[in-house]
Design goal:
By secondary structure, the protein is an alpha/beta fold. The chain has two domains: 108 residues, Rossmann fold (3-Layer(aba) Sandwich), CATH 3.40.50.450; 114 residues, Rossmann fold (3-Layer(aba) Sandwich). The chain is built from nine helices and eight strands. 38% of the residues are buried.
């Protein structure tokens, strides 16, 4: 955000006598929030993580994630019907930017046969041995989930045809994951996030971000959130490492 735009934004807020601002967004939004906070003594800011990528450091959950996961779940279930009836491998690309959370959780909860995310090294030879063995035992289709960060959906589809010997298709879910009616869980979480954000402002916090960890809400300084890389939970990563066996 250029300085002249930040100045204009702060002038507009002061003109309308706004002294509290709640910012819903991701990493870029929080970096902008920090700049505005540093350049204004009168205005207090509070951040709420809201991105389906779930790639914000310091919080285990961001608003929108559950809704996106449910959209992906519905898509996978629909694709599985076609995969099984036509005996094909489907490579489904999910969003997440540089974070594999959506892909990994969706793969674990949908019973996918393959999951490729940037956080976990993978070995296609290991997958090949497992898939060929499964086909000998009667399997006729595969569901593979890949994170958009890898950019290899087409490559994986070709691998299925050339190495495994099964016809394949690529499905890029794209921005369908960002829309739809919010789930009940997301709506309840939004209520709690906003309540904590408002309480934090009234308590005098100037630029805190409301984070959700270990079943509870906490305030963290913007520096702890906006400039750190998201690390997936150990338990989820451990489960993800079992793919390809």
């Amino acid at each position: 955000m250029e300085l002249r735009y930040r100045k204009q934004a702060l002038e507009n807020l002061k003109h309308h006598d706004i002294s509290y601002v709640i910012v819903l967004g991701g990493d870029g939004s929080f970096k902008g929030m920090q700049l505005l906070s540093n350049e204004s003594e009168e205005i207090r800011f509070s951040g709420i993580p809201a991105t389906i990528d779930n790639d914000i450091a310091g919080t285990q959950y961001c608003l929108g994630v559950d809704t996106a996961l449910n959209v992906i779940k519905y898509a996978i279930d629909s694709v599985r019907d076609t995969a099984s009836s036509f005996s094909r491998a489907f490579v489904i690309e999910t969003m997440g930017r540089e974070c594999g959370y959506l892909t990994l959780v969706s793969a674990l909860t949908s019973g996918a046969e393959m999951c490729l995310v940037p956080e976990i090294p993978y070995d296609l030879d290991r997958y090949a041995k497992s898939f060929k063995r499964q086909m000998k035992n009667g399997r006729t289709y595969f569901i593979a989930l890949v994170c958009e960060a890898l950019g290899n959906a087409e490559e994986v589809a070709s691998w299925f045809e050339e190495e495994i010997g099964i016809e394949s298709r690529v499905v890029v879910l794209g921005h369908i994951q960002r829309g739809g009616n919010p789930t009940v869980y997301d709506r309840l979480m939004a209520f709690d996030f906003v309540t904590y954000a408002i309480d934090g402002l009234l308590e005098g916090r100037k630029n805190a971000v409301v984070c959700y960890e270990e079943g509870g809400f906490h305030y963290k300084e913007i520096e702890e959130v906006a400039f750190k890389k998201k690390v997936l939970q150990t338990g989820i990563l451990r489960l993800g490492q079992e793919f390809g066996g």
